[in-house]
Amino acid sequence: MNLNATLFFQTLVFFVLAWFTMKFVWPPLIKAIEERRQKIADGLAAADKGKADLAQSQARISLIEADAKQQTHARLQDAEKHAASIVDAARGEAETERSRIIAQAQQDAEREVQRVRDSLRDEVAALAVKGAEQILKREVNPQTHAELLNQLKAQL
Q: Is 15 a member of any domain?
């Protein structure tokens, strides 16, 4: 065995193997690596896009929340104003009704007082007539008159 021939054949086999690998094995490997690299790049791009979309969605949610809070606050203020106006109207109506009831009660009391006075006058007049009648039927005697007056006082 010749060392030069062995080296020559080994070099020839090496180059044939290298050519075969570069021609038939290497392109599918490079293609698979490139596809994998592209998938990873697409995945990273999708992740970045997802992060950006998430950030935009969170910003929109923040705006929607702020708007909802503002609308809620405005509705609460409107409701409070409406409730205050209802309370004020009810107070006004109650005050008017109270004034009317007081005036009615005062009128009723005045009428009752007047009725009682008239009734008392009638009774006093009747008693006076009764007393005068009794005085005239009897003889004029100061002691008898005093007795009748005492009886009249007792009846009043």
A: no
Residue 148 burial (C-beta neighbours within 10 Å; 0-12, 13-18, 19+)? middle
31-34 CB contacts, 8 Å cutoff, 24+ apart = none
pLDDT at 103 > cutoff 60? yes
Q: HEC states along 14-42?
A: HHHHHHHHHHHHHHHHHHHHHHHHHHHHH
The DSSP call for residue 131 is H
Total domain count, the chain: 1
- Taking the complete model, does pTM exceed 0.70, yes or no? no
> Is position 134 within any domain?
yes
Let me know if residue 20 belongs to a domain. Answer: no
What is each CA distance from 53 to 45, 60, 61, 88, in whole angstroms?
A: 12, 10, 12, 51
Domain of residue 39: give its range. Answer: 35-155
